[in-house]
Design brief:
Chain lengths: ~200, ~200
């Protein structure tokens, strides 16, 4: 199913697409073209679910399964395209943090190119304003992070860079936001280069 | 600064409050009342920054520092109150995933009590609709997770339960959303009980 080569976990809200399985195959094909084995969150575990999970609700079984998938991979690639807000999908971000703590390289790609600060201000709309200290704050007084060159919250972009990964962001028009493979392809090429260094 | 006792990392968007340092002390006082040492993301590292971080931009130094803080703690408690969208703050979610992969218990609290499915549908507004298969989807066709009893994306709630932690959610009116310590206090009491079991 996942072929030979180093294993790459494909985190992202692609699992929410109406044709999620086909999307997984499309992502996997790009990986295969670079000699990598893509692991999609909807894949069954090689050894099946652990016996102890049988009594768990489905949501909790999925969570255990994805943690096991990540632990079985050599790297993680996250679709960080903003999802229902200025940041990436929460499940994707969780998984990125999980792999980072395992000490393996993490990568990101996004089909939105605006920096996180600009996206966050746009999300907050007219309520976003500079305070007396010059810092941007939302309508509740909460700071709007304004660090240069961050594509999302600094923990996300910081972890990718610290791990030796890269973050590829390209602006894609709304109709292709969940379809374009351009940034993903560039990201997978970088993963292949990184993992070939051992 | 953090007193004696087991160390608990206090993840959350509390760092974005105008009086973030005072907020950190308020959270720390609750921890101390339960014999725990609260570690706030804005704290300096006990041993200072690593020499190699000197040339990094501030955002990346903060990311390294918080990863080191988490690795120094016995448990993590996340403020999962929805932040600029239906899910928790992205940095907080990253940190929860990081600690989960370290194999230590993770806990969550939220000042919003509606389930994730209901919050997500509300965020998507009139665009949210059931498809022919009965599943809720947003205006782009992306699935709206609809698992029972999940307070956020299933990776988040699943990790908390799998680690032996708890998630405490209480509805707080908007004015007190970033101030109430009620759910936090209940969560910290659960952390103290869990960590006293060794």
């Amino acid at each position: 199913m996942s072929g030979g080569g180093k294993r790459v976990y494909l985190a992202g809200p692609d699992v929410f697409l109406p044709d999620a399985a086909a999307r997984g195959e499309a992502l996997r094909a790009v990986c295969a073209a670079h000699g990598l084995a893509g692991v999609f969150p909807l894949d069954a575990l090689a050894g099946g679910d652990a016996p102890g999970w049988a009594g768990l609700p489905e949501a909790l079984r999925i969570a255990r399964r994805n943690e096991a998938h990540i632990a079985s991979c050599d790297a993680l690639v996250a679709n960080l395209t903003p999802f229902r807000g200025p940041s990436a999908d929460a499940g994707t971000v969780f998984e990125l943090g999980y792999m980072r703590a395992l000490g393996r390289p993490v990568f990101g790609w996004s089909n939105a190119a605006a920096p996180f600060a600009a996206r966050s201000r746009a999300f907050c709309g007219a309520a976003a304003a500079r305070g007396a200290d010059g810092a941007w704050r939302d309508g509740e007084g909460m700071l709007i992070e304004d660090f240069p060159d961050m594509a999302d919250n600094l923990m996300i972009h910081g972890a990718i860079l610290a791990s030796g990964g890269v973050l590829v962001a390209e602006e894609v028009e709304a109709a292709g936001r969940w379809r374009s493979l351009s940034a993903f392809g560039a990201c997978i090429a970088a993963v292949a280069r990184r993992l070939s260094q051992g």
